[in-house]
């Protein structure tokens, strides 16, 4: 039976009394948030608010160990939900006795702020500065997790909270919840079912790549949410649906165009890389997003809010906010909350009042939670309902009147589109101190080009030729092209034949830079950097997850074991006799630096449970990485069969009541032959012959040959024969 709390119900946990909070927007209902496999109840105590998560997906002791291990990351801003206690019958016997459904419930801090899923669902806008700030905060948090060798494991919009929207000074503008799926270095993986959401790559993830696809989608959603077209095109609780993933659907083009228009080619190219990823391993590392996210100056370039005008005539929001403030002043918090929410839904993204309204809503929700819901006397209902209806009616009339006046009096502003990828070189004219128009001059030569797309956007430096194509407009005017990155010498590019105004083909003929890993290089055309246009150069051909280091391959002599399990060692040279260096294990990720010589990889450790090993390089036999072409187990050596008697029948020339036995190849002195089941026997002479009589004519029997000790001789037990047979045996 699910946990059904009552408002103000008291729960005593570790000697502290907690009360169930009332829902701020639904009078008479407790504050319960429903999830797929759990429900989260808000509790209050003298020290503030906490969350009680009652889940049915996993109820076992491993939750306790997992919670203890999560304490190591609970100090990271945005992971405060990792501070948790697992309620069990062992540590809270009184509570679990009265409320058995709370066995293995999770007590943790309450994370303020709306979930990202709520903004998507209600199409609530963000300003460009909010979009960029939240995207950057989420990126930094995910990079911190990745660098600690951990993954969240189920990144999706419902698990991303946005405290920064209601408190600009919040220590963590973005926080993650639902941490039961978190695992990695030092944190065990709970036996949870594989997550399913529109944020999961179509190919199941392995190891530390589990967050790269979902994390990238969340970052891209946040960056694009300041665009009206993106919000209009979004699905219900996420921007993409599972059917959109890795497909060139209309949503993909809408998001890509919006990213390029607002933030330049950098984020748009990252979306391209994401859509070209065959597996999560091919997705960009989360730390790569830190280098790609645009400068805050680009967000500051958003259009200025129009000057304040008479709110009574053209601003439909001001009356709502005034009415909400009045309701709040008179103590009608629930009604004020409803009106504030209505105002928030109508506020444009760039209106500075949006943040103020969000903070006010959160404050009212806390005030309502602190106040116990008490039944209203019946007589109050006779006047409160008409008054509420009257207030709402007046508000609606004011809004409709304001909208009508606004349509008549306010001219539509001319949209201004800024394209950061356009580069124009115009000689600066001398400014005249006089306002008199300057005399007409001869036309000034203008060189203008625009870059829309680059493909491919990452190049393996070990492959030739190193070529890529630039698409845009005005590209026939390009005379020189260069790639530049901080800390590296410029890379000159050759312009290949066949260029046009819309396409430019470029080649790297010589590359003499000490590249280690991957680095984004900015494209420079005619000596001018193109904002956001970058090509990533990498010294590895692919990324692999080690899968062939298994204990059952010990027979190869390449597998060792310690307390952490099976491992193999990197070799200095591609030879089994070469010296060994660092260990690698199943689940480690490695960069493939070279596939020569045959049967070997030259690798560099990309991720490992031991962070000190990251960056180590050397040679490993391919089968240890790919788990294909594994050397077969050695054929077991069959010991030679010991010698024995091997009988054949020579003829039937003996008396029908007798059998004759002849043995060659071994000394039979002292041996006898006996008829099984009959008291008939005979001794072997020095020539290896023995004769036994007393059978019925042509009687079928079996005989056994025994040595001088009376023990049966190998090959001479139960040999079939019959009267008149002459049997011959050879010892071999």
In short:
The protein has 732 residues and is α+β, with helices and mostly antiparallel strands.
Question: What keyword list fits this structure?
Answer:
Low_temp-induced_all0457; 732 residues; 16 helices; Serine/threonine protein phosphatase; 6 domains; 7-stranded antiparallel sheet; Transferase(Phosphotransferase), domain 1; Kinase-like_dom_sf; Phosphorylase Kinase, domain 1; 9-stranded mixed sheet
Main sheet strand line-up: 12-13-15-18-17-16-19-20-14
Structural class: alpha+beta
Q: How is the main sheet built?
A: 9 strands, mixed
Low-confidence stretches: 303-314, 372-447
Give the terminus-to-terminus CA distance.
Answer: 78 Å
Q: What is the overall pLDDT average?
A: 83
- CATH architecture level-2 label of the largest domain: Orthogonal Bundle
CATH class descriptor of the largest domain: Mainly Alpha
How big is the Rg?
Answer: 41 Å
- Net shape: elongated
User: What portion of the residues fall into strands of 2 or more residues?
Assistant: 25-35%
In the CATH hierarchy, the third-tier topology of the largest domain is known as Transferase(Phosphotransferase), domain 1
Number of strands: 35
How many structurally independent domains? 6
Question: Mind telling me the CATH superfamily name of the largest domain?
Answer: Transferase(Phosphotransferase) domain 1
């Amino acid at each position: 039976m699910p946990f059904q709390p009552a408002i103000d119900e008291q729960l005593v946990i570790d000697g502290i009394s907690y009360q169930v909070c009332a829902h701020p927007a639904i009078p008479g209902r407790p504050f319960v948030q429903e999830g797929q496999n759990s429900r989260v109840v808000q509790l209050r105590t003298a020290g503030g608010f906490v969350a009680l998560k009652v889940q049915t997906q996993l109820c076992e002791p491993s939750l306790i160990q997992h919670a203890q291990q999560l304490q190591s990351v609970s100090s990271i801003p945005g992971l405060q939900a990792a501070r948790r206690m697992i309620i069990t019958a062992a540590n809270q016997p009184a509570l679990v006795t009265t409320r058995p459904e709370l066995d293995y419930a999770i007590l943790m801090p309450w994370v303020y702020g709306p979930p990202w899923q709520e903004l998507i669902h209600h199409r609530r806008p963000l300003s460009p500065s909010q979009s960029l700030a939240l995207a950057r905060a989420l990126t930094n948090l995910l990079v911190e997790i990745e660098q600690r060798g951990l993954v969240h494991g189920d990144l999706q919009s419902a698990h991303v909270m946005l405290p920064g929207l209601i408190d600009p000074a919040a220590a963590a503008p973005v926080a993650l919840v639902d941490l039961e799926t978190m695992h990695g270095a030092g944190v065990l993986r709970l036996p949870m079912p594989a997550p399913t959401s529109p944020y999961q790559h179509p190919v199941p993830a392995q190891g530390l790549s589990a967050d790269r696809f979902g994390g990238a989608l969340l970052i891209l959603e946040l960056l694009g949410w300041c665009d009206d077209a993106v919000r209009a095109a979004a699905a219900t609780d996420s921007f993409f649906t599972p059917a959109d993933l890795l497909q060139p659907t209309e949503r993909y083009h809408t998001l890509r165009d919006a990213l390029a228009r607002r933030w330049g080619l950098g984020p748009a190219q990252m979306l391209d890389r994401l859509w070209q990823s065959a597996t999560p391993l091919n997705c960009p590392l989360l730390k790569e997003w830190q280098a790609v996210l645009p400068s805050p100056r680009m967000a500051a370039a958003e259009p200025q809010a129009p000057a304040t005008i008479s709110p009574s005539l053209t601003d439909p929001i001001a009356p709502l906010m005034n009415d909400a403030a009045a309701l709040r002043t008179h103590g009608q918090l629930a009604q004020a909350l409803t009106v504030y929410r209505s105002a928030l839904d109508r506020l444009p993204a760039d209106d500075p009042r949006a943040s103020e309204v969000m903070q006010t809503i959160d404050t009212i929700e806390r005030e309502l939670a602190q106040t116990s819901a008490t039944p209203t006397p019946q007589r109050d209902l006779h006047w409160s309902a008409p008054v509420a209806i009257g207030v709402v009616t007046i508000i609606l009339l004011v809004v409709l009147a304001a909208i009508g006046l606004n349509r008549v009096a306010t001219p539509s502003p001319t949209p201004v589109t800024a394209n950061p990828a356009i580069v124009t070189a115009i000689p600066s004219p001398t400014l005249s101190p006089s306002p008199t128009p300057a005399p007409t001059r001869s036309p000034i030569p203008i060189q203008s080009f625009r870059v829309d797309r680059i493909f491919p956007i990452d190049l393996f430096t070990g492959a030739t030729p190193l070529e890529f194509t630039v698409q845009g407009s005005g590209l026939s005017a390009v005379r020189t092209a260069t790639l530049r990155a901080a800390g590296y010498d410029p890379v000159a590019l050759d312009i290949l034949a066949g260029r046009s105004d819309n396409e430019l083909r470029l080649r790297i003929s010589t590359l003499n830079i000490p590249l280690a890993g991957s680095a984004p290089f900015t494209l420079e055309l005619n000596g001018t950097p193109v904002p956001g246009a970058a090509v990533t150069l990498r010294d590895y051909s692919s990324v692999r997850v080690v899968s062939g280091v298994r204990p059952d391959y010990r027979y190869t002599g390449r597998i060792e074991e310690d307390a952490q399990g099976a491992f193999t060692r990197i070799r200095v040279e591609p030879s089994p006799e070469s010296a060994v260096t660092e260990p690698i294990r199943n689940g480690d990720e490695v960069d493939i630096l070279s596939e020569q010589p045959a049967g070997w990889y030259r690798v560099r450790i990309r991720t490992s449970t031991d962070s000190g090993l990251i960056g180590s390089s050397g040679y490993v036999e391919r089968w240890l990485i790919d788990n294909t072409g594994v050397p077969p187990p050695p054929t077991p050596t069959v010991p030679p069969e010991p010698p024995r008697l091997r009988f054949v029948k020579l003829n039937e020339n003996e008396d029908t009541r007798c059998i004759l036995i002849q043995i060659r190849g071994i000394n039979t002195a002292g041996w006898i032959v006996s008829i099984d089941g009959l008291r008939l026997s005979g001794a072997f002479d020095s020539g290896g012959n023995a004769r036994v009589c007393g059978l019925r004519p042509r009687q079928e029997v079996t005989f056994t040959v025994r040595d001088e000790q009376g023990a049966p001789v190998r090959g001479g037990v139960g040999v079939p024969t019959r009267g008149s047979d002459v049997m011959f045996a050879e010892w071999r």
